[in-house]
């Protein structure tokens, strides 16, 4: 591919990403892979170059752009080497003329007031930087120090005692340690959510919004003799947990819930759980460095719905916690309404519950919980709070 053809390919991919974000379709990574499956003529250098152009464009465009062409014209405004590639050549983009590009903006206008007070503008660029690849060591079967030696480029994470960090774009899916279930891909911040639960053998632990089970498996590794129950209303995501648990050697009970009937289906656990983890559906704003087009998917109405769902899930969890037990609330979000405000409102409704600080030295105090951010902690953005029920 010529340099101009690479720019045109990026424009075409970006058009698909914009439409997918609008229609709640597949993520950008999936679209990039699908694009090149039908274009075998593109070599590995072409694919890397086009992918880099696509993500440069997404990262600089906080507001949903009009078109992929507008995004790449914005990139050309930043990079004098890209502008001349709008040359009208056979496989390249049409010449530019006076056509404007999308403006550069990290955070959508409407979201700025929603950010946590901790996030000053000088921290915003870190929200969009390329993320490293973090691994969680399966501590029930492996030693972190030994795996540091076994995996090229791996270093221990700073906060999590279970974590390893590799450079961005590292590949581990064919490494024996991954195949044998000794490590799982998991951001350090996500590991700290499991650590906040303080799992111990003999406990009954419920992961209420387990999804594909990343945090469930972290809990199982830390407390292999705990009783672990993982539930979710999403059949496709929950189905991914069983093979992952088998690879990790973890024993987990899964329970697919019907939306709206969760309380009835969970009634046999009322007052039985030492820990309930509510890793609630959220904006995903803490993962923008991995999914920067997530800024285009979020709307004020969608945020309102998510906040209401989080509140409902917290209320669903309350009767499940035994007297003196713990409810851990977490979101991969940097927005105050999904974090400190949501947690504060919970304590306002349940004045007999007690907030506790985290059993780790990361993040910053944010209302009754702690906020982890890329700039401050080198993790994805997470809010986490611990509440202890009255005895």
* Helix content percent band: 25-40%
Instruction: Please tell me what the overall shape is.
Output: globular
Whole-number radius of gyration? 22 Å
**Which architecture name of the largest domain does CATH use?**
3-Layer(aba) Sandwich
Total number of strands: 13
Question: What is the quaternary state of this protein?
Answer: single chain
Query: At the fourth CATH level, what is the homologous superfamily of the largest domain?
Result: Vaccinia Virus protein VP39
Q: List low-pLDDT spans.
A: none
Mean pLDDT: 96
CATH topology group of the largest domain: Rossmann fold
Q: What's the total helix number? A: 15
- Largest sheet, strands/sense/barrel: 9 strands, mixed
Span between termini: 68 Å
